[in-house]
Amino acid sequence: MKKSRTEAFTDAVIAIVMTILVLEFPHVHGSTFADLIVLKDIFPAYVISFIFLVIYWSNHHHISQIIDKVSGQTLWWNNAFIFLITLLPFTTNWLGDNIWAHDPEILYAALFLLANLTWLCMIKNLVKVNAHNACVT
């Protein structure tokens, strides 16, 4: 199976998730820098989420450069990974609205843990599917 469709789809989803992250910011009512104080809780969570998305996108880009093909199982792992990162705007917003509450922190961290475990499973599958490629193994 060719990798180009998977690569393009994942790129598009990550770009959309990045856009939704910033659209979830609360509206700033006012025209001074002091009015930006409403962003004080959400902004750190946004920065962390954005950085992780950039890392995920960069890793996906680099692995796509060295693999030749993907399998059906790879697609399922990739879709599970995408599903998890599409939850990032929700968890980021919930964390930003409840910065000192434990449940949002736990869910936010669990989401990253699950996304990373899913990524690891996808990479293991890609190594198996591309075992013929010396760059992958």
UniProtKB/TrEMBL annotation:
The species this protein was found in: Pseudolactococcus raffinolactis
Lineage: Bacteria, Bacillati, Bacillota, Bacilli, Lactobacillales
Transmembrane segments: 12-30, 36-56, 76-94, 106-123
Repeat listed as a keyword: no
GO MF terms, alphabetically ordered: potassium channel activity; proton channel activity
Keywords: Ion channel, Ion transport, Membrane, Potassium, Potassium channel, Potassium transport, Transmembrane, Transmembrane helix, Transport
Any Gene Ontology CC annotation: membrane
Membrane topology per record: Multi-pass membrane protein
Identification of the protein by name: DUF1211 domain-containing protein
Keyword Transport assigned: yes
InterPro entries documented for this protein: TMEM175-like (IPR010617)
Subcellular location as annotated: Membrane
Catalytic activity: K(+)(in) = K(+)(out)
Family: Belongs to the TMEM175 family.
